[in-house]
Amino acid sequence: MKKIVIFGVGLIGGSAALAFKKARPGVQIVGMGRTQQSLQTALDLGVIDLASCDIAEALQEADMLLIAAPVAQTPAILATIQPHLNMNTVITDAGSTKGDVLTAARKVLGDQFSQFVGGHPIAGAEKSGVTAAMADLFLGKTVVLTPSPETKPEAVAMVEQFWTGCGAKLSAMSAQTHDSIFAAVSHLPHLLAFALVHEIAARADAEQLFSFAASGFRDFTRIAGSHPEMWRDISLANKNAILNELTAYQAELSMLKKLIELEDGQALEALFEQASTARNAWAKSKS
Amino acid sequence: MKKIVIFGVGLIGGSAALAFKKARPGVQIVGMGRTQQSLQTALDLGVIDLASCDIAEALQEADMLLIAAPVAQTPAILATIQPHLNMNTVITDAGSTKGDVLTAARKVLGDQFSQFVGGHPIAGAEKSGVTAAMADLFLGKTVVLTPSPETKPEAVAMVEQFWTGCGAKLSAMSAQTHDSIFAAVSHLPHLLAFALVHEIAARADAEQLFSFAASGFRDFTRIAGSHPEMWRDISLANKNAILNELTAYQAELSMLKKLIELEDGQALEALFEQASTARNAWAKSKS
């Protein structure tokens, strides 16, 4: 790989640029994006080699294009790229949902959909923007790729090579499997945390309540501090899987409520025990 | 204060012993408890000065007794103490719920209920047991006291003096206010986290789901690793306030689900924005 274009040089795009540049110092990284200012910052920080506002020029002889912009912008970005896309450039993305991205790519790219590989790096940080970018963000983290039957094997191989260069591990699955897994282990917890804080903040005695919230509340609600626009997009893009998760969770809560109403201490303790054992085993397996 | 008896020398009781001893090296700390083994460990670690299994002897000339055992054991512990309780010993506790504790104390102690001060130190740690005890656990943390109209002012003053000596700040409110505040900011989040992990762990594809869970899931579910017996007791002891919180949260979830069904991006973003702003402002105020 000699030239890589990154559309959206924020935390994810910027970190990927830094990580791959570290592994392959010879590669040229061209940044593109919505705002000239963040591209200038990326240039000043040495995250990218060149900032471009000319998509035709940027794509010339590019080996790969990584779209790392908010996921709702992906269809518009693909439409901008499509007229200038040659047969050898591989396109991939870093969006948190994959079904919607693949539908858009299939529609916009036509025959060239075979050059597109859906991707989702499972990494993030409290802060966003290129100033938060770091070369080790993906070290040991998983990147999920969701190739379709039409996808060229060479395209998949190139994207794998890119993320391996960034220090990540790879995992492949269908877009549908990806979206249902992440609805359960990521999207649902985010919505539950947003809902808790929203519900408490709306009360007349919110200030008093917050003043007694302690470390358990802090950890539980950390993800409620996440980016509202990003989570709006995810909620809409993965609507069906998220609704299924919310329905299953509501049933679980009704069951738990029933046990408390019935004062069934034995069943409550068993439920907490199962959850606690599973959670601690998981944490141990990840450490 | 010359002699303090601590019933239940685990994380909370042990840390209180270490903290108060540091502030007042002259005080004698007598440990009592269910198991001889943990008392022996507490002795070996220098957390207590004396381990006793004779309640009459332990209470002789004791200025204060702190009950720091699991909250469901409080009525039985009070009944054990009552026959040997002189008029000058102040009793307090460290339970996470207060309405049930006050009801039990009023019933068991009769006239001597005026010597009882309900308390709840808002502090904890990942680990439990006396080996996890530390002298600075309460430093800068809040201890809520819930005195009743019958409580002697001297009793409240002594308990305040104890916790101030441990480095804590004090806050006073009714047991009912305490229980409704903590139902919202502590008990509800714990139940929500237990419910999420329990629901996911019960699925056929639990292993695959857990393997893709990342840092957001880790923080959100940390409190689902908490002690099952303790949370069974809290769920039963604070039943009514917790059921109210679950009902309010279910309504919030139904509303959020409706917004996703309607694909109301504007309302979703507004909800996430309000939650995110409130959460980040809270975290900043606590740092």
Describe the overall structure:
Two copies of one chain form a homodimer. The first copy, chain A, has helices spanning 11-23, 36-44, 55-59, 74-81, 99-109, 153-165, 175-201, 206-211, 215-221, 228-237, 239-261, 265-286; strands at 3-7, 28-32, 50-51, 64-67, 90-93, 116-121, 142-146, 169-172. Chain A has twelve helices and eight strands. An eight-stranded mixed β-sheet of chain A has the order 3-2-1-4-5-6-7-8, sandwiched between helices. Chain A is elongated. By secondary structure, chain A is of the alpha/beta class. In chain A, helix 5 (99-109) links the parallel strand 5 (90-93) and strand 6. Chain A has two domains: 3-172, 3-Layer(aba) Sandwich (Rossmann fold); 177-286, 6-phosphogluconate dehydrogenase C-terminal fold (Orthogonal Bundle), CATH 1.10.3660.10. The mean pLDDT of chain A is 95. The interface between A and B is large, with 85 and 85 residues.
Question: Helix and strand layout, with pairings?
Answer:
Two copies of one chain form a homodimer.
Chain A: E1 3-7, H1 11-23, E2 28-32, H2 36-44, E3 50-51, H3 55-59, E4 64-67, H4 74-81, E5 90-93, H5 99-109, E6 116-121, E7 142-146, H6 153-165, E8 169-172, H7 175-201, H8 206-211, H9 215-221, H10 228-237, H11 239-261, H12 265-286
Parallel strand pairs in A: 1-2, 1-4, 2-3, 4-5, 5-6, 7-8
Antiparallel strand pairs in A: 6-7
